[in-house]
């Protein structure tokens, strides 16, 4: 059977089989940098046994976990500050306007509401037709405003002159309502945009850092399990060798006792 290759670990300076360790050139750059931080003179051609390599692999795993936790906490603090920094309270527009509503504003709303309805159009049309019919046809001998209905024109002008500013008062209140709604929407959108940016940063950190780190940690775990398996195999080999030596010694002792001449 071919002799198994051996190498000397540059840390414990003991001879190990090549399958029980790794050369530095075969390691991940991050793990190799951790080793070189403790042993600056180490070369890529140097050999390290699995027992000593396990320490630096665990350090690498711990470093990645701490880095991910630190970054996650940083993003969570930013998100918390963003949610707490905006002290603007959303205004209930309807409730606020109801509290500040005066009698004149209630009247203007009622006039504008009635003036913009089909009921007003129907009533006003009936009054105009009745006015012109009564004064034009002379029913019951009544002609208080004969053609061309100057009194009707005066009444319409007065109604229009009074109704226009009343409707404008109601429109001003509608403008105030729209302004307050727009202000609420602006602050809500601003806060939502800020939070969405932080959430995007959190997702980017998850996809670009944490997921690759998770895969790398799983890879290191598999390597560590393989190293533990090799350690157990080495213990079994040593135990088997030790048992074989003991059996050989016992056989030699028994053989020696049989061949000893009696006095």
UniProtKB/TrEMBL annotation:
Taxonomy, superkingdom: Bacteria
Regions of compositional bias (Basic and acidic residues) in chain numbering: 248-263
Keywords from the UniProt entry: Membrane, Transmembrane, Transmembrane helix
Chain segments carrying region Disordered: 240-263
Cited InterPro entries: DUF1003
Record-annotated membrane-spanning stretches: 118-142, 148-170
Protein name stated in the entry: Acid-resistant locus arl7
Record lineage: Bacteria, Bacillati, Bacillota, Bacilli, Lactobacillales
């Amino acid at each position: 059977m071919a002799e198994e290759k051996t190498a000397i670990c540059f840390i414990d300076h003991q001879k190990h089989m090549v399958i029980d360790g790794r050369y530095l050139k075969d390691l991940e750059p991050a793990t190799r940098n951790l080793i070189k931080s403790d042993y600056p003179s180490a070369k890529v051609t140097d050999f390290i046994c699995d027992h000593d390599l396990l320490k630096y692999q665990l350090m690498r795993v711990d470093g990645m976990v701490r880095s991910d936790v630190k970054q996650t906490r940083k993003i969570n603090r930013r998100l918390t500050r963003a949610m707490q920094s905006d002290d603007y309270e959303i205004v209930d527009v309807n409730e606020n306007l109801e509290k500040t509503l005066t009698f004149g504003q209630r009247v203007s709303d009622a006039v504008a509401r009635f003036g913009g309805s089909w009921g007003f159009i129907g009533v006003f049309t009936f009054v105009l037709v009745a006015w012109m019919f009564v004064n034009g046809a002379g029913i019951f001998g009544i002609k208080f405003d004969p053609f061309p209905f100057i009194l009707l024109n005066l009444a319409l002008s007065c109604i229009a002159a009074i109704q226009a500013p009343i409707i404008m008062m109601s429109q001003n209140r509608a403008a105030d309502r729209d302004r307050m709604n727009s202000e609420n929407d602006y602050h809500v959108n601003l806060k939502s945009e800020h939070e969405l940016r932080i959430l995007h940063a959190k997702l980017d950190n998850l996809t670009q850092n944490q997921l690759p780190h998770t895969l790398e940690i799983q890879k290191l775990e598999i390597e560590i399990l393989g190293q533990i398996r090799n350690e157990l195999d080495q213990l079994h080999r040593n135990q088997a060798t030790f048992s074989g030596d003991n059996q050989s010694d016992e056989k030699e002792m028994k053989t020696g006792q049989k061949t000893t001449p009696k006095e």
